[in-house]
Amino acid sequence: MHYRSKFFEINVPPSALNIRDLPNATALLTIAYVAFTLSLWWVKWSYTSLEGNTEATHASIFSPIVQLVPTQTLYDPWSLVLSNLVDVKWWKIGVDLLNLVVGGSFIERNWNSSWELARFLLVIGSLSNLVVVLVTILSSAVFPRVRLDAPLDGNYTMLIGFCIVYKQLIPETSIFHIRNLPLVSKNFRFKLLPIFVLVISTVTQLVFLRHYSELLSIWVTFLCSWVYLRFYQVLPPAITGSTTKSLVGDASDTFQLIYFFPDIIKPLLSPLFNMCYWVFCVKLRIREPFNEDDVDTGNSLAEQRGAKKITNQVEERRRRLALQVLQERGAV
């Protein structure tokens, strides 16, 4: 569906409107999300409705089985997983449900793997939750005001992680286009979505809500999701265009962490990110560094998805490769 007016233009894929034909993982995850969220809300409503519970509020009632409570995580470890399928805020229920049905369908069909979508949402989400719980527990030793008996929001993979996947798969596709308005006209593409959501979420948490544990969860989810997609996701030959070779990670230039952030702060972040890459990949060998073939393959796949070339990096890499060849010939 295509909507166009004098000032506004938006494209809605036809598949987004067809909710009767959901892929397997998307359908099962949607059912689980609705079931767990409604069950938690029913428990909250039932308890607050009991006579004598005048002091009980909706926010003060929680379930450590499906919610992430640091002091209870050791006794209810399944909350690391189940909290990925629960929301307690009305606005987040609407956003996540829409994102799961529409975005999950798109991602699952693009990856051509139900297991890959489930792994990204549940495994990477659970890993993010574990990191958040550990950091929260450690920070409580330094900051006494940090509460360990209150539930944390353990479901940001659909809101944050899916945005990173959209940037990877359809970076130059427009979400909407504002036209004919001075100083406002903008073609807002999916490659801008992650930083837009991160900025809005960060400002909201710092200025208005002041839920610093949720702010931590947002950024940990962002980093865990990007690390998985960048270094560890295995794409089968059917997706990479090869007949025999699978692709591990996304080594494309456009998917570097630095390109998630505005140009104005890239000079400050670039040395830090380069140092982290050298420490974890080159020095510690937690993951083998990308070679030239990995980068070229990643760039080729990214261009097929519509990503624009980063010309200066391509030319610099070619110069290094040519210099290396000349040095090898000179040594002979």
Give a quick rundown of the structure.
This protein is α+β, with helices and mostly antiparallel strands.
Main sheet properties: 4 strands, antiparallel
Rounded to the nearest angstrom, the distance between the terminal CA atoms is 62 Å
Return the structural class: alpha+beta
Strand content: 5-15%
Mass-distribution shape: globular
Indicate the low-confidence ranges by residue numbers.
none
The number of distinct helices, counting runs of at least 4 residues, comes to 11
Order of helices and strands: EEHHHHHEEHHEHEHHH
Strand order of the largest sheet: 1-2-3-4
Summed over residues and divided by their number, the pLDDT gives a mean of 85
Rounded to an integer in angstroms, the radius of gyration calculated over CA atoms is 22 Å
Describe this structure in words.
- This is LAQU0S03e07448g1_1.
- It is found in: Membrane.
- Keywords: Membrane, Transmembrane, Transmembrane helix.
- By secondary structure, the chain is an alpha+beta fold.
- 56% of the residues lie in helices and 6% in strands.
- It has helices at residues 24-49, 79-82, 90-111, 114-140, 157-169, 193-209, 212-232, 237-240, 266-283, 292-304, 311-331, and strands at residues 2-4, 8-11, 174-178, 186-189, 234-235, 247-248.
- The radius of gyration is 22 Å and the shape is globular.
- The model has no long low-confidence stretch (mean pLDDT 85).
